[in-house]
C-alpha cells in the first residue's frame, strides 16, 4: 500500500492541494505552510515508493510562495505567472528576426524560424493566455507554406 497522505485523510486533494503537472514536472499548491511541509514529505515518500528519485537541484521541498517552474515565475502571493525578462528578450529577438526575414524576402519566412518562434512563444502560454489564439495562424502558415522551406506570413508593423 502507498504511504498515507498528510494527516491520514486519504489523498492530497482532500487536504486542499492543487497540482500543476507537465510531463515529469509538478507544482503542488497547498492551502497553508504547515500542510505544505507535511505534503512535501508525503510527496517525497510517494516518489521513492514509486521508484523515482527527484533531482535535488531541480526540486524545491521547502514551502515557498514564489518559484520558477517551466521557465515561468509562479508567485502565489500575488497570484501571477510571469515571464522572466531573459525569456521576454529572447522571444522579442525571435519575433524581430521573423519580421526582418519577412521584409527582406517579400513576406516569406523560413519555416524553421517560424516554428522556433511558435514553440518558444507557446512555452509562455500559462503567463500569456492569448498566446494560444495568436499562434494558431502562424502554426497554420508553417504547415502549408507555398514552398518546402518557406512560409508566407502577414505581419503588421
TrEMBL record:
<protein>
    <recommendedName>
        <fullName>Reverse transcriptase domain-containing protein</fullName>
    </recommendedName>
</protein>
<dbReference type="InterPro" id="IPR052055">
    <property type="entry name" value="Hepadnavirus_pol/RT"/>
</dbReference>
<dbReference type="InterPro" id="IPR043502">
    <property type="entry name" value="DNA/RNA_pol_sf"/>
</dbReference>
